[in-house]
């Protein structure tokens, strides 16, 4: 029989299970969690704790599920610090900047891309992210997209084909030709390495009809959909996402009441990415309005070298609370259970029997401190269940 480990003396525990504790976070004060192998075996109040082979005393610290970052672009070469500096002196953000990262990424060796990814994965882990999604989208040729997905698959199961990030320079005069490439040979080469397909449906990227065509082609070969929607201006991205049954519409910075009622009446999560508004000096999405309309909201980093070069979910939580009208409880739910919902996972984002043993303790007595103490590294310990990598060739 395998050994059990009890985390004892937990000041407050976020389970994200309404049956286990108070409120939407299923909060338990003075709690114990028992881990067996890679799974949670038990979670409850100290008074009901029975036995474990070994104990770890957390001294009153808060414990919560590891963060689930459901939107990131961590496979790329180079950075765009100069573009960021130019923006901070007044230049607007545009989708066109993506092309400079495409040039750097195409020129990079596999090893360079893997090393860059590993560095960001280490940052994710240190900041409490235990599940992350990784998109391609900086290769934009058949080989470069497939390569990015293979490299991403070495570090995560949540791999997303984003060949439709922007139209690459060699296709500027033939965008439809590029859509044919994405839905044909590129999809054939990429689908075996991915779980998801994504399209940037916005100004300077792809229109609604192109997005529908690309997402439907992906669905036909067994990928599931997610969409970059309504980031730069109001538009059809959210409508398309809901229409194709996407797991998530991401950004949702510019939304109409109709967009919100479409989302609220669907299984499509609105994934908000406040790091992008922070780093592009744009108005934040109105999370309060979305939550009040009944939309399910996730928070994610959008980690990428252009619009949001952060791996910090605590930073995103703090922004969401301060500038998007979320309560600390809502923001913590969205960064854990919400991210799991956006990835259609029920084994992460919660601390309940049977879930993966992915959890974090804070150098603080409650999860509220994540927003209350912005910019302070509060992550004490991170437990990550080992991953059995999906093997693709
Ligand atoms: O999610 N919006 C599209 N893609 C990224 C930005 C990528 C970049 O600027 O390199 C985003 O913000
Ligand atoms: Fe993105």
Describe the structure.
This protein has 393 residues and is α/β, with parallel strands linked by helices. It folds into 2 domains: 4-66 and 350-383, Urease, subunit C, domain 1; 67-342, Metal-dependent hydrolases (TIM Barrel). Helix content is 34%, strand content 21%. It has helices spanning 81-88, 98-107, 110-126, 142-153, 175-190, 208-220, 237-243, 257-264, 274-280, 287-292, 313-323, 328-342, 369-372, and strands at 4-13, 28-36, 39-45, 54-57, 62-65, 67-69, 129-135, 158-164, 196-201, 224-229, 248-251, 269-272, 297-299, 359-362, 379-383. The chain has an 8-stranded parallel beta sheet. Strands 1, 2, 3, 4, 5, 14 and 15 form a 7-stranded mixed beta sheet that branches. The mean pLDDT is 97. The structure holds N-(iminomethyl)-L-glutamic acid and fe (iii) ion (FE).
Strand content: 15-25%
Order of helices and strands: EEEEEEHHHEHEHEHEHEHEHHEHHEHE
Query: What's the pLDDT, averaged over the residues?
Result: 97
Structural class: alpha/beta
Question: Low-confidence segments, ≥5 residues, pLDDT <50?
Answer: none
Extended strand count: 15
- Helix count equals 13
Top-tier CATH class of the largest domain: Alpha Beta
Proportion of helical residues: 25-40%
In CATH terms, what is the fold-level topology of the largest domain?
Answer: TIM Barrel
CATH architecture of the largest domain: Alpha-Beta Barrel
Outline:
globular
Structurally, the number of domains stands at 2
Rg over CA atoms = 21 Å
CATH superfamily label of the largest domain: Metal-dependent hydrolases
Which small molecules are bound?
N-(iminomethyl)-L-glutamic acid, fe (iii) ion
